[in-house]
TrEMBL record:
Keyword Transferase in record: no
Database matches in PROSITE patterns: PR55_1
The keyword Repeat belongs to this UniProt entry's keyword annotation: yes
GO MF annotation, one: protein phosphatase regulator activity
Name of the featured protein: Serine/threonine-protein phosphatase 2A 55 kDa regulatory subunit B
Gene Ontology cellular component terms for the protein in this record: protein phosphatase type 2A complex
Length: 466
């Protein structure tokens, strides 16, 4: 059956519009996350700030393909400073305030909780609405107390409500557990534990105990010269509290069962992204096969979605030998990996977001654009350039879309961390469109129940209905 073509439709935008050269690093968004209900969304930026949005009234709209959709509308809810810049005096290193990841926890007694982390310290925040009251004399707030007593009338001031105020309080901090930069957080389905991952280790925490963590994965060799891979992401299974997975820079995803061993040494299942054909191997093969992001589908977690530099792959846990679907994202860049390596753009890490039903996946690319595919790898529409005006569409096929014309890269490099603006070069894709390597969609999230995607584009947050 042919796939229904879906064109993402712009819904909302938050953030000030500014020229690229006028933006500051502190304003760039680095994390986007919906809670389990989709009623709240949290974003983090390089300045260590967390901004919360609340779902408002839904609005009925008609999509270009004739479908009727109820578009989720969001409004600003609260903002707070999560992390401050620090200095590690033992290692003489500056610790950035940049928010690497945000994860929501279960709400308790009307309060909502989330975890946020920079490179070294994880913090738990409690967000709640508190009623603000003011004490006033109901009769005469300007009367002197002695006059009321003289008349034989003594009244206490009454409390009057002035509305509610959203407050964020740092309930716990989980410091000093990682020697390397934290890249992942994942809250367990049991609501009591979570994991944090850095380049070489994964730690298991109890949410109520910030003083102790259990190391469950350790890739650090006795001799660092023997190091051949690092951890790039980690996540708990969406419905089984004992299962977790992590991906590596070698293009491998491992799934382990904590019931089998307290230390994750032998994976129960492994998915290998390596290129086995020697004719297709090159100096850049291992770099582009590095998995930047790996996600379970919601529900039973049967399918895995992995994002490397050029593709999104879908894996079936019932058939781990090979991916069931491969979606080309940056196919036109394949002949130009040497140029991308020289500018460090090849190290950009793009995330992917999976729909609530597990049937679709969205991921970002250059030119401030993102793509939506279905699980079978058929294109669900065109590549969409993120903008608050009419979205610019480009048809994207399944295979390579042609070579890059002329000199693809003319400018400076893009940071390996992928978090900065950089001064990426300009070039053209197979359709003749100019590629802006300093404008890229790296962070996005899909609503758990609705076909709504939240996208971080530089300092602005966009909502699209798919």
């Amino acid at each position: 059956m042919a796939s229904i073509v879906r064109t993402p439709e712009f819904s909302q935008c938050f953030g000030d519009k500014a020229a690229l050269e006028e933006l500051t690093d502190a304003d760039l968004l680095t994390a986007v996350e919906f809670d389990d209900t989709g009623d709240y969304l949290a974003t983090g930026d390089r300045g260590g700030r967390v901004v919360l949005f609340e779902r408002g009234d839904d609005i009925k709209s008609v999509m270009p393909d004739g479908r009727h959709k109820w578009a989720c509308k969001y409004r600003f809810y609260s903002e707070f400073q999560s992390h401050e810049p620090e200095f590690d005096y033992l290692k003489s290193l500056e610790i950035e305030e940049k928010i690497n990841q945000i994860k929501w926890c279960r709400p308790i007694n009307g309060s909502r909780f989330l975890l946020s982390t920079n490179d070294k310290t994880i913090k738990m925040w409690r967000i709640r609405e508190r009623e603000v009251k003011e004490a006033l004399n109901p009769h005469n707030i300007f009367a002197r107390p002695e006059s009321a007593v003289a008349e034989g009338i003594l009244q206490f001031p009454k409390l009057y409500s002035k509305g509610s105020q959203v407050t964020a309080a740092n309930k716990r901090s989980y410091p000093n557990a990682h020697a390397y930069h934290i890249n992942s957080l994942s809250v367990n389905v049991d609501g009591e534990t979570f994991i944090s991952a850095d380049d070489l280790r994964i730690n298991l925490w109890n949410l109520d105990n910030e003083h102790q963590a259990y190391n469950i994965v350790d890739l650090k060799p006795a001799n660092m010269d023997d190091l051949n891979e690092v951890i790039t992401s980690a996540s708990f299974h969406p419905s089984s509290a004992n299962l977790l997975m992590y991906s590596s820079s070698r293009g491998v995803v491992r799934i382990g069962d904590l019931r089998a061993s307290a230390l994750f040494t032998q994976p129960a299942m492994m998915f290998d992204n390596h290129i086995e054909d020697p004719c297709e191997r090159s100096f850049f093969s291992e770099i582009i096969s590095s998995i930047a992001d790996a996600r379970y589908c919601r529900g039973d977690g049967r399918f895995l979605f992995t994002r490397d530099y050029l593709t999104v792959k879908v894996w079936d846990t019932h058939m781990p030998s090979a991916p069931i679907s491969i979606m080309e994202i940056n196919a036109s860049l394949r002949p130009h990996l040497a140029d991308l390596y020289e500018t460090d753009a090849i190290f950009d890490k793009f995330e992917c977001a999976v729909s609530g039903d597990g049937q679709h996946v969205a991921t970002g690319t250059y030119n401030n654009a993102f793509q939506v595919h279905d699980r079978e790898g058929r294109m669900e529409g065109s590549q969409t350039e993120v903008s608050r005006t009419m979205a610019k569409k480009q048809r994207v096929g399944m295979g390579p879309v042609g070579g890059v014309k002329g000199g693809m890269l003319n400018g400076g490099g893009v940071g390996k961390s992928g978090g900065g603006r950089g001064a990426g070069g300009m070039g053209a894709d197979g359709g003749g469109e100019t590629l802006a390597f300093d404008k890229k969609i790296m962070h996005l999230a899909w609503h758990p129940e609705r076909d709504v995607v939240a996208i971080a584009g530089l300092n602005r947050l966009y909502f699209y209905t798919v």
